[in-house]
Design goal:
Structural class: alpha/beta
Shape: elongated
Helix content: 40-55%
Strand order of the largest sheet: 1-13-12-16-14-15
Largest sheet: 6 strands, mixed
Number of helices: 23
Number of strands: 16
Distance between the termini: 143 Å
Length: about 800
């Protein structure tokens, strides 16, 4: 049985599942040789132009750079540096829109070319056959070379993975996608350099067999390559049938070797490594010429271009510059600019997007040339997509799960094996953009996997930290324990005890002794403290006695008012009870009235005794003033007696609400008699007190003052008696008012007449009292005038009070 290599050498080819045969449209751009696009006014270089991580920026804004000078650097295999495509000045490091299906922006270095195109120092490896493969791989990485077939995988990383693991090297020259002719023209125009690059790859990898796979629609390129291949190169040029997507890595491996790459694996897993034609050309420029990857071949095609062809465009060249230079005329209704071919390309959001290492074609079609698929219809389950899928997937199932965001099912159906060739969307009769769904689902799955990786990494860091802290703690405890044991052993050897333990014991003993001991106070100190406290207490008592006023009199008056209020309440309750039972038992009413009057008299006597004593002691000595005070007191006594009469007489009429009118009249008469008697008593008392004061006026001024005080006290007592009597008589009578309105009107008229009479008498008395005052006041006429004015004011006040009381009686 022949081996795989022997079968390949005999020209055997295999086939892959599916595939399509779309219109190629390569004749639009492959007729003219490659030209140089020139130097634009601005170059925009994204930091990430490959699969992997970004490099660290090693330049700053304002720096002068030369052609080929590195702008970034990285120490890992998946990091590819970026170089200056020409000499100039760095004007900005900012976010710019990049060539990506998402249309998002990324960090870019902006260079303003000086049009000098000055090279920096170059490092060449003309004797690469004498160099170690690892050294050449590192040189390839430092020159920024990534896969130029479209994937952008770092070439150095791929070569490292293939060292010692592969036996077949495949150079991908199929270029199967419609419209793209960059590799075709490169092989035609630079076949010698391409073959030299293949020789360098053979030196690095040392495969058993090298195959250049090229489709049969490129006869000129095939002929050019055969002219430069030697017999001892061990390079086979194998022509494969034109079928899309035969240029994909897994599909080309299957066609040329019959080996099938497993799911989610690379071709190196089956002993095959693959590089693109453009990558081999870039490796030759980097190793032999010392030029990093700063430009690439780009196909400009589509009916919207006036000048179609292939150009060497510097990395970072704005697409707008190429459109303007090569006569782009946009479609009037649907202007479009596509990066890539008609099946795997994507439409740009605008033309200010730079050329990158993965940009191989700029397609500007007209509407009729490449119709728009704007209306998505429902899937009819025709299975056409499954029939043409080169990866043997189920595109309709994947689309349903991706649309439903069921990413677990997408992974279960091997979505990651999709090469996004677009064959399924090309044959779909419902015009469903299947590749769009797959790209979105892949991006979401990748983002979730990155989150899981970061979470797992954080968990590992946390666990490592906890383990380190526990280990440090255990070591610290062991160290302390060992030090203590060592110290005890040393103390035991020297015959002493542990010094630290002894010190701790002494401290504890001192603390215990301090807690048990009571503080001793010396006698002198205790005496001083007691004296200070006594002095402080005395000063506090003195301060309170000085600052607080004597309110004893006010307290007595307040207690007296409370007592009177309680007695009035008791009398009122007694009166209510007696009036309610008066119709059944009139004798009980008389007894209750007598009891109330007795209580009132007793209260008046107690009040007079309590108020007369302090007054007699605090009178002034001047005899003239004493005489004036006595006259004023007599006048007040008469006035109060008259007021009591006027208050007593109308009230009986207002009573007898629900009782016998005859009994009410009798009670009113009794009350009036008692009021007259009380008034006569007050007048008699005032006369008896005034005579001795007048007689003793010239004899002893102190006695006259005492007499005046006594007179005032008695006058107050008489007024209080009159008030209590009037209240005691008015309360029971006030309940019999509603019996006869005529009698009530007569009683009110009588009360008004008596009130007027009392007011007149008060005025007359004030005038009569003012005469003796004037006689006795011969010494100071001003004081006499003041006393007379005071007497008149009091008389008017009494008259007004009588009038108000009369008005209240009328209203009631």
């Amino acid at each position: 049985m022949l081996s795989i290599i022997e079968q390949i050498k005999q020209g055997k080819l295999w086939d892959f599942h599916g595939g399509i045969h779309p219109a190629e449209n390569k004749d639009l751009s492959n007729k003219s040789p490659i030209v140089n696009a020139g130097i634009p006014q601005e170059l925009v270089l994204p930091l990430k132009q490959h699969i992997g991580s970004k490099g660290d920026i090693i330049v700053a804004v304002g720096d002068k750079v030369q052609k080929g000078q590195p702008l970034t650097q990285g120490d890992i295999a998946m990091c590819v540096p970026v170089h200056a495509p020409t000499s100039g000045t760095i004007t900005a490091i900012e976010q710019r829109t990049t060539a990506h299906p998402s249309g998002l922006s990324d960090l870019c270095i902006v260079i303003a070319p000086d049009q000098q195109d000055t090279w920096c120092d170059k490092t060449t490896y003309a004797d690469y056959e004498d160099r170690d493969p690892a050294e050449l791989i590192d040189a390839i990485r430092l020159n920024g070379i990534a896969g130029l077939g479209g994937a952008g995988f770092p070439t150095a990383r791929k070569l490292q993975g293939g060292l010692g693991n592969v036996d077949i090297l495949i150079i991908n020259a199929a270029e199967c996608e419609p419209y793209i002719t960059a590799d075709d023209r490169l092989m035609r125009d630079y076949a010698e350099e391409v073959i030299e690059g293949v020789r360098i790859l053979r030196h690095i990898i040392s495969p058993k067999l090298t195959i250049i796979g090229i489709e049969d629609n490129k006869p000129e390129a095939i002929q050019a390559l055969e002219q430069h291949v030697k017999e001892d190169d061990n390079i086979l040029i194998r022509v494969v049938p034109t079928k899309y997507p035969s240029g994909s890595s897994k599909q080309l491996v299957k066609i040329l070797t019959g080996r099938e790459v497993p799911s989610q694996s690379r071709s190196t897993s089956v002993g095959v490594i693959m590089q693109n034609v453009g990558t081999a050309f870039a490796i030759k420029r980097a190793i032999i010429d010392g030029e990093p990857l700063i430009e690439r071949v780009v196909t400009l095609t589509g009916e919207a271009f006036k000048e179609r062809g292939n150009v060497f465009a510097m990395l970072g060249t704005p697409i707008a510059y190429l459109l303007d230079k090569f006569g782009y005329k946009a479609d009037k209704k649907h202007p479009r600019v596509i990066i890539g071919g008609s099946l795997m390309g994507f439409t740009l959001p605008h033309s200010n997007v730079p050329i990158t290492k993965m940009t191989n074609c700029i397609l500007a079609p007209k509407r009729k040339e490449l119709p728009l698929h704007t209306y998505e219809m429902a899937c009819i389950r025709c299975s056409a997509c499954a029939d043409v899928c080169p990866s043997s997937l189920l595109p309709q199932q994947l689309q349903w799960y991706a649309k439903d965001q069921n990413y677990e099912k997408c992974e279960e159906y091997n979505l990651q094996d999709c090469i996004e060739c677009g064959a399924c969307a090309y044959v779909c009769p419902s015009e469903i953009p299947l590749v769009q769904y797959y790209r979105q689902a892949k991006a979401e799955i990748w983002a979730r996997s990155q989150d899981e990786i970061n979470a797992e990494r954080a968990r590992q860091r946390f666990e490592a930290k906890q383990a380190r802290m526990d280990r440090d703690k255990a070591e610290r405890e062991n160290r302390f324990k060992k030090a203590a044991e060592t110290r005890r052993e040393e103390m035991a050897k020297t015959g002493g005890d542990d010094a630290v333990a002894a010190a701790i014991a002494r401290v504890k003993a001192k603390q215990a002794a301090a807690q048990n001991e009571k503080p001793e106070v010396k006698p002198a100190v205790a005496a001083a403290i007691a004296a200070a406290k006594a002095k402080q207490a005395a000063s506090a008592q003195g301060a309170t006695s000085e600052t607080l006023p004597d309110n004893s009199e006010m307290a007595k008056l307040r207690e007296e008012r409370k007592r009177q209020a309680r007695e009035r309440k008791a009398e009122k309750e007694a009166g209510e009870s007696t009036t309610s039972a008066s119709s059944n038992d009139s004798k009980k009413d008389a007894v209750a009235a007598a009891i109330a009057r007795a209580k009132a008299k007793k209260a008046q006597q107690a009040q007079s005794e309590s108020t007369s004593e302090p007054v007699a002691e605090t009178e002034t000595v001047d005899p003239k003033k004493a005489a004036i005070a006595a006259a004023v007191a007599r006048a007040k006594a008469k006035k109060e007696a008259q007021q009591a009469q006027s208050e007593i007489t109308p009230e009986p009429v207002a009573e007898t609400e629900d009782v016998d009118p005859k009994k009410a009249a009798v009670a009113a008469a009794v009350a009036r008699a008692k009021a007259r008697k009380a008034a006569q008593q007050t007048e008699a008392q005032s006369e008896t007190t005034s005579e001795p004061t007048a007689e003793t006026e010239a004899v002893d001024p102190k006695k006259a003052a005492v007499a005046a005080a006594v007179a005032r006290a008695k006058a107050r007592k008489a007024a209080q008696q009159a008030e209590t009597q009037s209240e005691s008589t008015s309360e029971p009578v006030a309940e019999t008012e509603a019996i006869d309105p005529k009698k009530a009107a007569v009683a009110a008229a009588v009360a008004r007449a008596k009130a007027r009479k009392a007011a007149q008498q008060a005025e007359a008395q004030s005038e009569s009292t003012s005469e003796p005052v004037a006689e006795t006041e011969a010494v100071d006429p001003k004081k006499a005038a003041v006393a007379a004015a005071v007497a008149r004011a009091k008389a008017r006040k009494a008259a007004q009070q009588a009038a108000k009381e009369q008005q209240n009686i009328e209203e009631d």
